[in-house]
UniProtKB/TrEMBL annotation:
<protein>
    <submittedName>
        <fullName>DNA polymerase III subunit tau</fullName>
        <ecNumber>2.7.7.7</ecNumber>
    </submittedName>
</protein>
<dbReference type="InterPro" id="IPR027417">
    <property type="entry name" value="P-loop_NTPase"/>
</dbReference>
<dbReference type="GO" id="GO:0006261">
    <property type="term" value="P:DNA-templated DNA replication"/>
</dbReference>
<keyword id="KW-0808">Transferase</keyword>
<dbReference type="GO" id="GO:0008408">
    <property type="term" value="F:3'-5' exonuclease activity"/>
</dbReference>
<dbReference type="InterPro" id="IPR004622">
    <property type="entry name" value="DNA_pol_HolB"/>
</dbReference>
<dbReference type="InterPro" id="IPR050238">
    <property type="entry name" value="DNA_Rep/Repair_Clamp_Loader"/>
</dbReference>
<dbReference type="Pfam" id="PF13177">
    <property type="entry name" value="DNA_pol3_delta2"/>
</dbReference>
<keyword id="KW-0548">Nucleotidyltransferase</keyword>
<dbReference type="GO" id="GO:0003887">
    <property type="term" value="F:DNA-directed DNA polymerase activity"/>
</dbReference>
């Protein structure tokens, strides 16, 4: 992410960085919170670059001086990044960081550390960090990143300046994908599936995603015909295509957007729909579902998504969902 992108996507963050540096009021600890894909880590790196940049003429980091380049490549001796070791950030990692920070800064007068997924700190790690935050050194800056603010110890939150990253508007991601030449039918869905422009672009370029879209439509068409046919789609196509939780989650999202489309058609808001090529099928089936039924179906899909995390057998999960999506249906 460039400084320009930060200014466009998270203007309040760019402004906070500029003001704190201009006024010499850089806090000891920041907590960047917001959804995946909102650019928290990129913003933390831009902040670090701005603090260490050797060119002090502009508000944005130059990106070309030796400090900017070393931060970009993760080689600056006074800028440290802590990431989870496996599933958690361990006490030892925080202790190492503390040890590192008791030494004076190697080259600059400051030291900065970034803790990615700070919510994944073990209790012991969090307590170590807390002690560290309680004895702030004027020369130390901490930036904690999290997608789950509620999972951070309140005592840690209270010692940080909390900066919230806003979700990017779907339209903005969609417009970006269209500019890159992504076909509308894929761009519109990819922009809804993820809030990360880069991820959305990669998804739209992946044949797997286009195929996923087809299977979702196939399932919907089968659901409108016979229960058995829908089961066949699950067994023959769905389960072999969506093979892990992440893929299943995308598949269920795609199905959710399809039912949302149906609701749009029912409400006479056809310009909102994502599955343009299914418009005729939607128009036909609008007489078969009530708004309430569609809402129930969407709820069932969301419940299935939540069940992904309970390690339920995927086949059972999908078969139960198909049953729920057939409930109250006017078909036999
Ligand atoms: Zn620079």
């Amino acid at each position: 992410m460039s400084w320009k992108m930060l200014e466009t996507n998270q203007p309040h963050v760019a402004k906070m960085i500029v003001n704190s540096i201009r006024k010499g009021r850089v806090a000891h600890a920041y907590l960047f919170e917001g959804q995946k894909g909102t650019g928290k880590k990129e913003a933390a790196l831009l902040f670090a670059k701005r603090l260490f940049c050797l060119t002090n003429v502009h508000d944005d980091p130059c990106e070309t001086c030796v400090n900017c380049r070393r931060i970009q490549s993760g080689n600056h001796p006074d800028v440290h990044l802590v990431v989870p070791d496996g599933n958690s950030i361990k006490k030892q990692q925080i202790e190492q960081l503390q040890e590192e920070f008791t030494k004076t800064a190697v080259e600059s007068s400051r030291k900065l550390y970034i803790i990615e997924h700070a919510d994944q700190m073990t209790v012991q790690a969090a307590n170590s960090l807390l002690k560290f935050l309680e004895e702030p050194s004027a020369k130390t800056v901490a930036i904690l990143l999290t997608e789950q603010l509620h999972r951070i110890l309140p005592t840690i939150v209270s010692r940080c300046q909390v900066i919230s990253f806003r979700k990017l508007p779907t339209e903005q991601i969609y417009a970006h994908l269209q500019k890159q030449g992504v076909p509308r039918e894929l761009a519109i869905l990819a922009a809804r599936v993820t809030n990360n422009v880069q991820e959305a672009f990669q998804l739209s370029q992946d044949d797997w995603f286009a195929q996923a879209r087809k299977i979702v439509i196939q399932l919907y068409e089968a659901l409108n015909k016979q229960y058995v046919q829908a089961l066949l789609v699950i067994q023959q196509h769905w389960l072999s295509h969506f093979t892990n939780k992440e893929q299943m989650s995308i598949g269920l999202d795609l199905l959710l957007y399809l039912y949302k489309d149906l609701l749009y058609v029912l409400l006479g808001e056809e310009q909102q729909i994502a599955y343009d090529d299914c418009i005729n099928e939607f128009r036909r089936s609008r007489f078969l579902y009530s708004e309430k039924q569609i809402a129930q179906h969407m709820k069932a899909i969301l419940q299935a998504k939540a069940r992904l995390h309970t390690n339920m057998n995927p086949q059972l999960l999908m078969e139960q969902l198909v049953l729920q999506l057939r409930e109250g249906s006017a078909f036999v």
